[in-house]
Amino acid sequence: MSDNIFEQPEVGRLLFSEEEIQNCVARLAGEISNDYKDKTVLIVSVLKGAVVFLSDLIRKLTVTAEIDFMAISNYGSIDSSGVVRLLKDLDTNIQGLDVLLLEDIIDTGLSLNYLINNLKTRQPASISVCTLLDRPRRRIADIDIKYVGFQIPDIFVVGYGLDYQGKYRQLPYISELNTEPQ
Ligand code: IMP
Ligand code: MG
Half-sphere exposure (CA, 13 Å, Cβ side) for 117? Predict the structure, then answer.
């Protein structure tokens, strides 16, 4: 089997090409730049999946943006119990700041629900959510998502920051994970 990351049988059908993703990110950056005119937006990104999206998005924003990171364990996604553990907290005190939470994908919504509730107690001026991918089929927690890149059906995807067992984050496009590679 080839060790070339672009030739792995686990990486299946292409869902969004590099160009489609870049156009989508440009659209989201336009909407965000418009809504945060004359403000500084603190973009809080959830490690690790959202870092590729974040790095493309901030380079297309026209408003002043600062960035910070949080990391959580994904127990919530695995057993749907809603149990989420904070592995890395923000460096920034967000009191009075306009926070934009950036996610790679919102599935059950449990991890993000936990983060929103946690951040709200710190009294930011505002808190909004932006996600590249939205998979509403499996949603458990009701989340108000202000900016959505693409809605996807109930399939597992990899690439553009999204991983399967730590792999495939580096792919510049988004593909369906092939669970039964030939
Ligand atoms: P949930 O919304 O709490 O269920 O969890 C969403 C998180 O699970 C995302 O931030 C991803 O890290 C991970 N995740 C969910 N679906 C996928 C997928 O299709 N590919 C890769 N990671 C995923
Ligand atoms: Mg994630």
Answer: 12
Tell me how far the alpha carbon of residue 40 is from its chain's centroid. 20
Choice among 73-87, 99-113, 115-129, 164-178 with the minimum mean pLDDT = 73-87
**74 Cβ inside 6 Å of ligand 1:** yes
107 labelled catalytic: yes
> Rounded to the nearest whole angstrom, what is the distance from the C-alpha of residue 59 to the centroid of ligand 1?
24
Q: Is the CB of 77 under 6 A from ligand 1?
A: yes
Is 156's C-beta closer than 6 angstroms to any atom of ligand 1?
Answer: yes
Token reading at 177: 């994970």
Mutation choice for ligand 1 from 11, 52, 69, 104, CB with most ligand atoms inside 8 A: 104
pTM for the complete prediction?
A: 0.94
The residue ranges of DSSP E strands in the chain, in sequence order, are: 11-16, 40-46, 64-72, 86-88, 98-106, 126-134, 147-151, 157-158, 174-177
Query: Which helix or strand (DSSP H or E) is residue 20 part of?
Result: helix 18-35
Q: Model confidence over 69-90: pLDDT tens digits?
A: 999 886 545 455 667 889 999 9
